[in-house]
Amino acid sequence: MGIFSKKTKHDTGELPSLDNVVQKKLLLFITIVGKGQAQPVTRIFERGGSSAQFIQRGEGTATKEIYDILGVEDNDKDIIFSFISEDKIPDVKKELEAFFAANKRNRGIGFSIALSSIIGVRVYQFLANTVEDK
After folding, report:
1. Domain count of the chain?
2. What is the pTM of this model?
3. What is the 3-state secondary structure (H, E, C) of 47-75?
4. Is 94 within the bounds of a domain?
């Protein structure tokens, strides 16, 4: 028997099904904040039940004149991509609003995009933060 013919306990020949999985609508929530402000935002989403987050560095596109008018000195940004279920959004938005209101240095914008399809039950369970240990 070769190493490729050995069956594992997970190899039942059946494809996983969503029949026994509680389905929640998933969103990709994108938050854009000033450089160095990503960590507090990621903690807000972690407390809210986000399963995965990614941080990307970015740069604002406004002209120097616009930055001068707005009183912005730095155009470097942190962009946070967070996967979260739709039912958790109201609580997360309240916390984000409190974070932005707590200090005038805390500026940002956030918006969400609904995920209409995901390939794979396990991927869905991971993103929905509903993976069960067996």
Report:
1. 1
2. 0.72
3. HCCCCEEEEEEEECCCCHHHHHHHCCCCC
4. yes
